Amino acid sequence: DAKTTQPTSMDCAEGRAANLPCNHSTISGNEYVYWYRQIHSQGPQYIIHGLKNNETNEMASLIITEDRKSSTLILPHATLRDTAVYYCIVRNNDYKLSFGAGTTVTVRA
Amino acid sequence: DTAVSQTPKYLVTQMGNDKSIKCEQNLGHDTMYWYKQDSKKFLKIMFSYNNKELIINETVPNRFSPKSPDKAHLNLHINSLELGDSAVYFCASSSRSRTEAFFGQGTRLTVV
Question: What is residue B76's predicted lDDT score, i.e. its pLDDT?
Answer without folding.
Answer: 97
